[in-house]
Amino acid sequence: MTPLVLTMQAFGPFAGSETIDFTALGRSPLFLINGPTGAGKSSILDALCFALYGQTTGNERDPTQMRCDQANATLLTEVTLDFRLRGVDYRVRRVPQQERPKARGEGTTTHNAEAQLWRLNAQGEQETCLVARKVNDATAELQTLIGLDANQFRQVMVLPQGKFRELLLAGSKEREVIFSQLFQTQIFQRIEERLRTQANQIERAVNDHRQHISGILAGGELESEAALVQEQETLAPQVEQARQRFDTAQQQRRHAEQQRDEAQALQRQFAAQESLAADKARHLEQHAHIQSIKARLAQSAHAQALRPQSTALAQAQQALTTAQAEQRQAQAGLTTQRAKAEQAQQALETARQRQTELPTLRERHRQLGEFIHKGQQLSELQTCFQTAQAAWQQADAALKRDEKQLDSIRQQGEAIGVNLERLQTEFQQLASAPAELSRHESLLKQRQELDELTRQERELTVQQQQATDALNRQQSEAAQAQRHATEQEMRWHQGQASLLALSLEVGAPCPVCGSRDHPAPAVQNAAVVTQAQVETARAALEKNRQAQQAAERHHHQLAQQISHNAEQVERLTQQLGEWASQALMELHNACKGLRRQAQRRESVEGEIRQQTAARDALRREWGALDKQLKTQRPTVEKAKENALRLESQRDQLSQSLPEDARDPEAMRRTLAELEQQIAQLEKAWESAQQALSIAQTQLARSDEQLRGASERVEHRQQVQAQAQTEWLAALQASPFEDDASFQAAQLDDTQQQELTRQVETYQQRLAELEGALQSYQTQLADKTLPDLAALTRLTEAAQAEESTQLEAWRTLDGRLTTLKGIHQKLAAAHAAQAELEAQYQLWGTLSEVANGRTGHRISLQRFVLGVLLDDVLIQASERLVRMSRGRYQLVRREDPSKGNKASGLELDVADTYTGKNRSVATLSGGESFMAALSLALGLSDVVQAYAGGIQLDTLFIDEGFGSLDQDALDQAIAMLSELQMGGRMIGVISHVSELKEQMPVRIEVCASRQGSSVEVKGALF
């Protein structure tokens, strides 16, 4: 992630709107953020982190507290950041929650937090909106794009003030999270989880099978599998003996049941015989009632013989009464019909008189019908003529319009053709413009690069001269310091000899040579040099040597840069050719002219496409219109002929009609009145004829009905007298005394059937009882009644014995069957458990190794990250060795952590002075900063080198340089310069004054009562 433009408004100490254009600092700049304490240097990093994650770098201030107190109340606190990631530009804008004045009235209202994220096009304009407003959505999207969360961003891309030791002192667990995100090693973690899940599943399955085996034994109330085998061997003969005892008891039970069943059958026969005798006695008690029913049935038979004569007499009397009623009704109807016939005759005479008017009315009706028909034809011809005339005029107008349009299309096509020829000629002339423009733009970039290199060459030459002077000066000072240190050491040694000589005594041995003679002792002839003075001279010598080495390195770096610059200048001069010597403005002008030609070429090409498309469209339109005209011309002629023909027919028909018959509506009304009058006359005549016919028919029918009714009365009277005579004769010959006794003896069919059924049922039941008694007497003639109670007791005893033996056999056999089932289940369970244990031996071992449960407890991902960390530490140690003057190196701790704590990614520092490794926590403040800086730079190198890793092309360092001595500071700046030359942006926040001299490109933060402001200084371009 590389920041491009940062805009802060009413944020932190910035009261107004401040914009930092990082692109103005140059390509991959190394720059200083400088300013007094409290001016807002760290707020720039806060704004960067807030724009990306909605948090400040230290995460100690809430975003709602970042509003500037000096800002105008109407100015909204917001931060906007344009940044580049993997070649794509983005813009993020964040607004924290804040209070702002109400739009109307007094007081304030809460402005909720919001965030927007856009993808930018090549011109830096907003192209695609990725997040419209939601803060959480923007944070999640940015974490996905960058690949780091806020804490990881602060640890690897921003070293905040007082926080630079976090990554250095992080434990294995925290460092594993950061490195896995940076190097995208989550696949190894997924492998660990997959192996752990598989092993756990198999382990749970093994434990489940063990529990299953225990459950099988517990379900069978067995202590072990040996007890199962022993019980099976014991139960097998017991089951066979129990089965045999059951078979014997079953046979005895069957014999006892057979004897009991035979005795029960014999007893039932004796009981049935007694029951039948009792039923017969009860049945004979109904004999007197059955005899009375038979007597009544005999009387009913005599009455049935007289029924025809009685029925005939009743029917004859009923028929006579009906005939007399019909005779009276027919007489009344005849009188009524005679009156109606007379009225119909009178109505017919009246209708006959009006019939004489019909011929005149019908003739008038015919004439009116002919006039109306001709009027309708005339109206239809007029309508057809008007329609035909309108169609003719419309078709003729359309024909003339299309002919005019066809002529216009022809003229447009000719104009387009002329314009196309001109555009194609111009396009051919501009054909080479894009290629020439691309070549000249490339030449312009090369020429600008050449000019920049020339300017840098001049600056580097000046710097080299200054570095040469400084190197000569440092060499002279170092030589002088060498001479002074040597002189001081010699004087110190001389002073030591004179001091030793003062302690010599005559005759006493010399402490140096042991001689007792002292012929020429040393004499103190100058001031004695102390050990402190010697050490001071040595320190001054060492400082001068280091300064000389730094000057030599600086001189060597400048020489390398000048050599590289010269090579680039030579290469660009050869590539530019004659343009290398010409003025830059001429190349600019040439590019502008070619750019205009290229733009004109694109414009001409677009015009050619438009004109060609327009010409093709006109051709298609001309063809369709021409085809349409060929069809229209015959249609127009035909419409004209049709209109003239209809006009002639209309005129002829109009002349054949009289003037008073040319009003169709009046003629229709008159015709309707005539039709109504004729219809009324015809209807009256028909109605009168029909009424008379109906009246005459009804009169004749009524007369006939009266004669028939009179004849039927006479006939019914004769039949009734004859039936009366026959009934009296039959009654005298019967056993009945009078008609009343005859009526009492009659029975209807239902009563007779019911009495007959009672007699037959009695006789049938009596015969059945007598037959059954005879059968039982024959069967039981030589038999006696059995002792059923004794036989029942024997049978019950046999059944109880059988049940006892069956239960004993079932119990033993069920237990044996259960044991066999348990044996089969145990065999299947042991086979499944063996298979699972074999699987667990593979998957469990892989899971334990991959998840760090063996040996040094290092997981697969942590092992991979350890290898990557080793690469990081190699790069970091190279820098730390230089900054610590060869004393410290960063190493990975090999010994595992105590207890169950995760290990494998802990850091130690190797101290070459002591030859031992110790914790990085024991480093001093300055040493910790050097180690943290080295680790951050080494991490940046390695992450950039690994394909698929997160791009760490930006690094911000907030303070920490004040804890370094001059040599360490020079080494740190040299390393940052090397990193910057590798294509990374490095931003440093520091109060150290030496950094101003060594880092000319900087962002100055100025403080005032009205709020802070920023200014970019020393930008290259």
TrEMBL record:
Gene3D superfamilies in the record: P-loop containing nucleotide triphosphate hydrolases (3.40.50.300)
Region of interest: Disordered: 241-262, 331-358, 458-492, 632-663
Residue ranges with Basic and acidic residues bias: 632-650
Name under which the protein is recorded: Chromosome segregation protein SMC
GO molecular function, one term: ATP hydrolysis activity
Coiled-coil ranges per UniProt: 752-779
Rad50/SbcC-type AAA domain mapped to chain residues: 6-261
Keyword Phosphoprotein part of the UniProt annotation: no
One Pfam family linked to the record: SbcC_Walker_B
Biased composition regions of type Polar residues, renumbered to the chain: 335-348, 461-479
UniProt xrefs under InterPro entries: P-loop_NTPase, Rad50/SbcC_AAA
Keyword presence, Membrane: no
GO BP, sorted A to Z: double-strand break repair
Organism of this sequence: Vreelandella boliviensis LC1
Keywords: Coiled coil
